[in-house]
Amino acid sequence: MNGAGLFPSSSFRSRSLSRFVIIPALVLFFSYALVHSAEITGELKQWHKVIVLLDGPDVKEEPATFRDYRLNVTFTKGAQTFVIPGHYAADGNAGNTGANSGNKWRAFFNPNETGEWTYTISFRQGTLVAVSLDPEAGSPLAPYDGQTGTFQVGPSDKLRPDFRARGMLQYVGEHFQQFSGDKTYWIDVGPGSPENLFGGSEFDATRGPKYERRQWYSDHQESWREGDPTWGSDNRGKGVIGALNYIIELGQTTIFVGMMNLGCDSKDTWPWAEEGPFMDTDRSILKDPTVDMMSTFDVSKLDQWEIAVSHAQKHGVLFHAYFSEEEDESLYEWVEGLEMGGDNSFANVRKLYFRELISRLGHFNALDWSMGEEWGGVRGNRDQKYGYPVLSDGQKKLFANYVNALDAYNHTNGFEGDLDKVERDYPIWFNGPEFNRASIQGDTRRANWYSTELRKQTMESGKPWVIKFSEHHRPVARRNMSAANLTGFRESAWATYLGGGSSVEWWLSQDDYFLESYKPYRTLLVEGAIARDFMLNHLPFWQMEPDNGLLQANAGYCYALEGQIYGVYLHDARDAELDLSGITGDFDVYWYDPLNGGDLKSGTVDKVTGGGTRSLGLPPERTDEDWAVLVRNRSKRVIP
User: Fold this and answer.
1) Beta bridge partners of 615
2) Reduced DSSP (H G I as helix, E B as strand, rest coil) percent helix, strand, coil of the chain, to 5
3) Cβ neighbours of residue 75 under 8 Å, at least 6 residues apart?
4) Can you give the pLDDT at residue 165?
5) Among 287, 391, 401, 476, which is least packed by CB within 10 angstroms?
6) CA torsion, points 297, 215, 190, 184, in degrees to nearest 10?
7) Residue 134 CB neighbour total at 10 angstroms
């Protein structure tokens, strides 16, 4: 055998060696890609939370983790496309383990259809890539970027009041939100206190200036039920979940919660990892926040917030989330040294804050965003350096558009403010793309006027807004639930609903963010739920219009679908007259007890005929007190 037989040509050797090199490399590549491929978890059902879980960069809670990585997942089905922001999840179970490091990254998706969905991962890396809305910002991070796959979604197996049985609650160009699934319209009632629900000691790394004095719903731990969620290795959360259970049992369907109050009110709520307090009760600064601090989120705390909201949603409670208060409204720009109140001043830490919260909470079916409470410096911010100068209209536009771009589900977006918002701040936004909801705080005695006026103004602008009254309050002493004040609160719920408003959220007087128990407010909460039940069970409220002119002057409130059905609230039942001039037909008259609810009742008059002003008679009892009346055309019956 010659040498050529023993030693093949160099060309042959090169090709053979390349095969030996390439094949193991390919095996290594595909093995690595397989290890780092996405896992689809959660309940794979329509309107449920689907989780895309990824083994990504192994990092920890530090600024670069949240600023310099960006996970987005695009979900497609037919012509539909949802781009969902993802987030860092530490070990994937941080709410229970308290982990602040790990390699888990994830996105929460709420599919609106059954069938096969396709997902595609965009994972980018680069300086401040997380705050950019440009899909090509930064550089792709291998082997994660570009991964794609499919999964099957089945029908929901839930029943009402669970929102997963109803679909996504959305703005549909009308005064009332509508569920995308069962197509029903929505009104709600519930507490607007405590605004610092997320500032309690049951959540990780939460410590305000009054931390040691708080019991955090110890009075409601008895309402926690076996099978309800807890979090942490020590099973915390029974107070918060018990408090939610208590208001659910009283028929409450919304709760108003702030997600950051570092420099105002209770000064105990924020999503960042650093413990407080930052400010004392007298507003003296204990330590200033920094850019790095506001770029580092507490993964376990945010997991726990999501658990609490999930429990509320399963029981039919909408989450009304506001991003900041007046006193903190310029905090983000102050921290970065930007021009305070400048039209183009939009801090990166604010963008990170919006992105993180939308990523973690935006999948919920019944969610309202409020850009801020008392947004825009209603009270001038006085001595608060984080809130003054106030935000400019240019900033408000930038912030709202950024939130709307990140939120894929068409949740309502608005801002909450004091009484003069109706005439001063709201009108310039009526027909723009930024907002579609008003959230009024104010004296309950003018609730009907606010509701009807905002409804009228936004309708005339060509874009009807949803009208929420998010802080119903009266100038009363702490926990003053006297009969007179209860009557005033009760009347304000009816005033809002019969004025075309969609929401009643009670500001619980001076307890507010020091509230430890809802029990002193039981009667108030129940009577609000009674008013809502009347609207839901007896009126096609989404089709009706306020028309107090059909009653005697100052007698009460009237909500009408002309010639068909009328909902009336009377301060004094002896003033029961309704103007049916120009209307034909016979109308049944029923009375509804605003104190006790229950079935419709017959009074001294069971029928009236159109054609003039008609007496509705008297109710079956308490004839000199407040009552509600349903007047319904016998031949044109409308089923709500």
Assistant:
1) 577
2) 30, 25, 45
3) 81, 82, 84, 109, 111, 117, 118, 119
4) 98
5) 287
6) 50
7) 8
Helix (H) or strand (E) holding 312: helix 299-314
Q: Which domains does the chain have, with CATH numbers?
A: 39-153 (2.60.40.10), 163-537 (3.20.20.80), 545-633 (2.60.40)
Mean pLDDT for 574-591 is: 96
Query: Could you tell me which of 144, 148, 85, 84 has the C-alpha nearest to residue 116?
Result: 148
Burial of 257 (0-12, 13-18, 19+ CB in 10 A): buried
Separation of alpha carbons 520 and 505, rounded Å: 16
Give just the sign of the alpha carbon dihedral 595, 601, 606, 610: positive
Taking the model in full, what pTM does it have? Answer: 0.92
Helix (H, G, I), strand (E, B) or coil at 497: helix
Q: Express each pLDDT in 389-444 by its tens digit.
A: 678 899 999 999 999 999 999 899 999 876 656 667 788 899 899 999 998 887 77
Angstrom distances, CA of residue 286 to CA of 204, 276, 333, 385, 599? 20, 9, 19, 14, 56
How many residues belong to the chain? 640
Q: At what angle do helices 299-314 and 238-249 cross, to 10 degrees?
A: 20
Structure tokens at 245: 């259970």
Write the DSSP assignment of 347-370 as a string of letters: -HHHHHHHHHHHHHHTT-SSEEEE
> Cα 421 vs. chain centroid, distance in angstroms?
21
> Residue 349's closest CA among 330, 366, 367, 364?
330
Instruction: Please tell me the distance from the alpha carbon of residue 266 to that of residue 198, in angstroms, as a whole number.
Output: 11
Res. 278: pLDDT tops 50: yes
Read off the amino acid at residue 531.
A
